[in-house]
């Protein structure tokens, strides 16, 4: 249904919130582990994300636990007030050398507006090729498709997604 390899590319969790948290936290931890010198991880998202994305990002951007301070910079890109859609170029313009993840929902759970995931994925693939050539790590691309799956085509290869979360409901 999503054009993924069922033997290597699908992980089942208890729900969408757990999967979204896992992707965010794993991206930050992987960035910190592989960043030399240790830089502050940067994540790009939109201002209309589901709370299962927005809340962990807000928590990580302000959190300091007792063992290790986790200081994440988050850029919330605004959607158009007329269309409810984010511009792919605005997402790309928010990129920095320390960006480790872009996370954009496919279909908004309140308005139903479909975001330009395919365009973001195509643009990011070009940027990632340049990043790798310059010795920088690739930026992961995540899409929460909970409200899109079964309603619109969701092909992880075509959309150039690294991570996709969907839910059983």
UniProtKB/TrEMBL annotation:
| EC class (word) | lyase
The family database entries (InterPro entries) matched by this protein are listed as: Aminotrans_V_dom, PyrdxlP-dep_Trfase, PyrdxlP-dep_Trfase_major
Q: Does the keyword Manganese apply?
A: no
Ordered alphabetically, the record's keywords are: Cytoplasm, Transferase
Gene3D superfamilies per the UniProt record, alphabetical: Type I PLP-dependent aspartate aminotransferase-like (Major domain)
Cofactors: pyridoxal 5'-phosphate
Q: Does the keyword Transferase apply?
A: yes
EC number of this enzyme: 4.4.1.16
Source species, please? Medioppia subpectinata
Any one GO CC term of this protein is: cytosol
User: Where does the UniProt annotation locate this protein?
Assistant: Cytoplasm, Cytosol
Quote the function comment for this protein: Catalyzes the decomposition of L-selenocysteine to L-alanine and elemental selenium.
What is the name of this protein? Selenocysteine lyase
User: Where is it chiefly localized?
Assistant: cytoplasm
Q: How does it assemble?
A: Homodimer.
Question: Which one of the record's GO molecular function terms can you name?
Answer: selenocysteine lyase activity
Where do the Aminotransferase class V domain residues begin and end? 1-169
């Amino acid at each position: 249904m999503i054009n993924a390899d069922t033997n290597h590319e699908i992980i089942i969790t208890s729900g969408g919130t757990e999967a979204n948290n896992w992707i965010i936290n794993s991206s930050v931890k992987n960035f910190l582990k592989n960043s030399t010198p240790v830089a502050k991880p940067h994540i790009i998202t939109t201002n209309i994300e589901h709370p299962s994305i927005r809340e962990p990002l807000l928590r990580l951007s302000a959190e300091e636990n007792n063992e290790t301070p986790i200081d994440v910079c988050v850029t919330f890109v605004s959607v158009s007030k007329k269309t409810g859609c984010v511009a792919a170029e605005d997402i790309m313009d928010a990129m920095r050398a320390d960006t480790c993840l872009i996370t954009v929902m496919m279909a908004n759970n309140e308005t139903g507006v479909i975001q330009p995931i395919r365009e973001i994925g195509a643009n990011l693939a070009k940027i990632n090729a340049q990043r790798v050539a310059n010795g920088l790590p690739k930026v992961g691309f995540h899409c929460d498709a909970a409200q899109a799956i079964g309603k619109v085509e969701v092909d992880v290869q075509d959309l150039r997604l690294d991570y996709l979360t969907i839910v059983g409901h």
